[in-house]
């Protein structure tokens, strides 16, 4: 049974690698954001739950800036007939992988 397009396994593995790297990057950003925020007196006086929420908001805001910055070139390119939602270059796939890594981080951060 054919799906309608051929799967390129090298690109799929590359995409999964990017998702894992993005997950590790967002986790490190949360850790670094907490370490940098601890130097502020106001952050240190917050209860632990609010400190955790603050670190999550730092990561979420950074993701929004990165995702919008990466999505603009993908939206400005003319889409292909094969994958009309990803554009003509791999930058769209990289943007999706970065966002998927963030969503994985967000899911595990909430749990």
Please summarize what this structure is.
This protein has helices at residues 9-37, 41-45, 48-76, 91-110. The protein is mainly alpha-helical and 111 residues long.
Question: Can you give a write-up of this model?
Answer:
The chain contains 4 helices and no strands. It has helices at 9-37, 41-45, 48-76, 91-110. Helix 1 (9-37) packs across helix 3 (48-76) and helix 3 (48-76) packs antiparallel against helix 4 (91-110). It is elongated, with a radius of gyration of 18 Å. The mean pLDDT is 85.
Share in β-strands? under 5%
- If you average the pLDDT, what whole number results? 85
The count of DSSP E runs of length 2 or more, i.e. the number of strands, is: 0
Low-confidence stretches: none
Largest sheet: none
Order of helices and strands: HHHH
Portion of residues within helices: over 70%
Report how far apart the termini are.
38 Å
Q: What is the alpha-carbon Rg in Å?
A: 18 Å
- Helix/strand-derived category reads mainly alpha
In DSSP terms (H or I, runs of 4 or more residues), the helix count works out at 4
Principal-axes geometry comes out as elongated
Topology, pairings included?
Blueprint: H1 9-37, H2 41-45, H3 48-76, H4 91-110
Helix pairs in contact: 1-3, 1-4, 3-4
